[in-house]
Design goal:
single chain; 77 residues; mainly alpha; 2 helices; FAD binding
């Protein structure tokens, strides 16, 4: 979870993530983790800036062969 997603938007500082969306995200992550555990896997969840957290995880895990991510598309006005 990137703390920057819970700050205001670039324009007008509207909240990006309100309480209902946050609850939905938390429930979705919990459900995904439970589904993965039933299949013998797991889900690593961290809070922080992805550029910092990913480096820390790679150091901790050691034997990572690939890292996949997506970037949020921002509309330019």
């Amino acid at each position: 979870f990137d703390p920057r997603h819970y700050l205001g938007t670039h324009c007008y500082s509207f909240p990006k993530t309100g309480p209902h969306r946050l609850r939905f995200l938390l429930e979705s992550v919990k459900d995904l983790r439970e589904t993965l555990r039933k299949k013998g896997s797991t889900l690593v969840v961290r809070k922080g800036k992805p550029e910092d957290v990913v480096c820390e995880l790679l150091t901790q895990l050691g034997s990572v062969t690939a890292v996949v991510f997506h970037e949020e598309v921002r509309e330019i006005l």
